[in-house]
Every structure is written in C-alpha cells, then in structure tokens.
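Quarterly update, task 2.4: flavin mononucleotide-bound model.
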Amino acid sequence: METAMTRTDSRLHLLHLDSSARFGRGGLEPHGSWSRRLSDAFARRWRDARPHDGYTYRDLAAQPPRPMPGNWVQAAYSPAAGRGPELQAALADSNELIAELRAADVLVVGMPMYNYGMPSPLKAWSDLVVRMGETVTATRDGGAVVYTPLLADRPRRAVLLASRGAEGFGPGGRYEAMNHADTAMRGVLEFIGITDIETLAVEGEELGGAHFEAIVAGALAQVDALVARWSGLGEPVAA
Ligand SMILES: Cc1cc2nc3c(=O)[nH]c(=O)nc-3n(C[C@H](O)[C@H](O)[C@H](O)COP(=O)(O)O)c2cc1C
C-alpha cells in the first residue's frame, strides 16, 4: 500500500476508503458491492487521469478500526507531553487515520446504507479522525464555544459513493429524512474542514433488474464526469 508519505507538494493525494461488508464489485464479481464498484471506478479513472498523484487505499471492512478504547477520551484531551505509554497506545489508530486524512486532497468514500446509517467501521473511522487539537480546535468567545476546523488549511474535496437497497433517500425523496448516513458523514467532514462534498448514489439494489442496471450506468457516468471535473485540480504534474 502506498502511504501518506508518498505525497509531494506538486501532486495531489487521493485517499480511497471502502466500508461495504461485501468484498467484490457489484456486477463484476459474484455478490459484489455497488459502493465498491463506484469507488473503484472513481479511483481507476483518477489514477488514469493523474498517474503521478499519490494514492492510499484503506479497506475499513477488511480491517475495521478498533472502536475507541475506554481511555481514548482521556488520552485525546491530555497534553501530548504528559501521555504515558498506555495513553499513547490508545491514540495509535487515531494518529494513523488522521495522518492519512491530513495528507489527502481528495477523499473517496464507498458508503453502503446499513439500517439508515453508515457501516460501523466507517463510523469508527469518523470517531477516530475527529480529534481536538488535531483536526479541530475549540476556543471560548465570551460564553460561546467556537470550533475551528484544522483541515481547512488547504483545498480538500470528498465524494461519498453510496449504495442503498431501497429508493427515495436522496434530496426530495420520500425517505430523505431517514438517510442518516449522508448527513452524518457530511457533518463530520464539514466539522473538521472538508466542506466541498459531493454525493453520488445508486438506489434500488433490492429490486434489481433493468431499472437498477440503468441506475448503475447513470451513476458510473456521473463518476466519470466528476473525475473529469476534479482531475484538473492542483498543479500540473510533469511526466
Ligand atoms: C445490514 C444491512 C442493513 C441494510 N439497511 C438498509 C437500509 O436501512 N436502507 C436501505 O435502503 N437498504 C439497506 N440495506 C441494503 C443495502 O443498502 C444495499 O444492499 C447496498 O447495495 C449495500 O451496499 P453495497 O452494495 O456497497 O454492499 C441494508 C443491507 C444490509 C446488509
């Protein structure tokens, strides 16, 4: 796996996360995942368009982040210099995931809907990357707490590539209010400074058939269009 260290200042870095519990790509491998199909299509197109960019892939379903250990909050709110070995160990996963995210200019998230929300490994990831002093700070302004996102230090973009069994969870849909996946992930990213966020989704996987195939084809075309739009970002990279 390439790591965050492969990024140079003249290149962009793509961080690609998957979180589906299904490990193939929908329509290409048996029992495959549609969110993986979309995120794979995005990453392939991106890397074709910008072969000199950095790339990190993390499969959160294959290697789920450890949910916050009991002493995580104590560790996160302790001054770094005063953390003993146990508190340092509690933050190890968080440190690694934050370093990857900080290095990224473009974040691609394969995000299935499970029980109206995001998969638990993705939720664990989000809990570990929101950290005071690392990705956000809080200060007092009179009686109010003011949060400053630390990942707003340079342009960053994210695309959420969603798959949902039923239809109607998108904007204006009959189940929009039940879509707690997109809103939660957007909220987390915006809170730490990544505010340029797109969502592309396939819906209706449970019914399948030609109707769903057309939805997938439409979503893949939208992925191509988004890569074409975003891949002009950043400085030109010499071959
Ligand atoms: C545990 C579980 C919970 C699910 N919950 C929902 C749900 O709340 N709403 C929905 O529309 N589809 C739901 N589905 C269907 C998935 O969203 C759908 O199969 C989607 O394609 C999964 O993403 P993937 O193809 O990337 O694996 C659920 C599927 C599973 C396995």
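Highlight for this quarter: The helical segments are 34-49, 72-76, 85-90, 92-103, 120-129, 180-192, 209-230.
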